[in-house]
Amino acid sequence: MRLTRISLLFFVCLLASKLCFAYVPEAQSEGKFFPSKGTMASEEYEAKAGMPVYEYGKGLQLGPVHLKPELNYGYRWDSNVFYEDTNNESDYINTLRGNLLAELPFAGGQHLLSAAYGFRSEWFNRFTNQNHTDHKGMVGLNLNFVSFTLDVEDTYERTESRANTEFTERILRDENAFHSLLEVPFASFFLENEITDFDISYDRAVDAVFDHNLFTIYQRVGYDMTPNTQLLGEYAYIGVWYDQDVFGDRDGDAHQYMLGMRGKLTERIAYQVWMGAQHRIYDDFVRPDFNGFVARGALQWDPNEGNRILFRADRTPTESTFDGQSFYTRNRGQLTWRHQIAERWFVNLAGTLDYHEYSRITVLPGEATTRRDTMWDTGTGVEYRMPNDLVSITLDYRHVGRDSNLVGLDYDGDEIAAGVRAIF
Q: Taking residues 188-195, what's their average pLDDT?
């Protein structure tokens, strides 16, 4: 009965996308959702190759640099501050978020150098020990040549936000994610090389056993079957390296093989779907390995200007911090919808539904079973954009929860938030 209510809630009451918190901090590559530049044989490529990609006229001008500041204040009520199963504690929370993006286009907007800094501060009315400020920095470079395109970005974050589905409490940690994507078109096919390098380290000594590095290389080859359809093949290497070996040797390697298709169904509908297998082998032979089916996909529909619907789904193994487990298999669906209902009124809807399967039977006392979790994060929001097109007023509702087959891991909670945002 509870799962039925969850399913209904997922489709009926969806959360504003700006309120959804990522469950897993690791940089999980999904490839490019929609068509790249494609092959040199395509008419679209010939028309756009090497042309300016930067859109001028936004933000504040400081010499050749374009500055885009953003400031957001929110006040919300949280019914379950600590995501507890029973005896839920509520609180009123002030949130202040700021971000400054600096962009330096060069070669007439053909290339772009960017950097950003952002912060998020939260002040709790009752539980002042939960007060925290997160910091985030980014540098990026986009090169758009006729013969290739290269996007490089590095993001560093020092944060106390909820780490993932297992660390539901606030834990101070450092995360650094590097990402690069190289696209090279040829006569009738193209190549993509994508690299991600993710490091995470926790400040608390008791959590340092989970400090690790996740490194991936994706090599793809694609072919333009039709002007609107691309066929692709992909090989990925995934390396997992832990700083400590308290739970035995947790290092491992994974090899992933996938076939995919992406393109446009119409001018307003784009899609991507991948299916394949991953072999995730840990160095310690007593640890469970993953040898199974993996998939990812996305569908984007833009019915008209100001209206966008995006659905994403994936199945992939993810490193675990629970009970010495190696990993859990994450099955996830995400839906977001931004709809303009009037000239200055917008409705934001979104939701995430996860089902997690753990790698082995738990060794916790009295729990001789394999952990299975269903998680959801859903809600809705309304936004009014002021006539100056700089300031927006928002009102949002959010519902989150987890239903687990292990005792004491269930929780659910509600949030109601009002805020004001200024973007220049």
A: 92
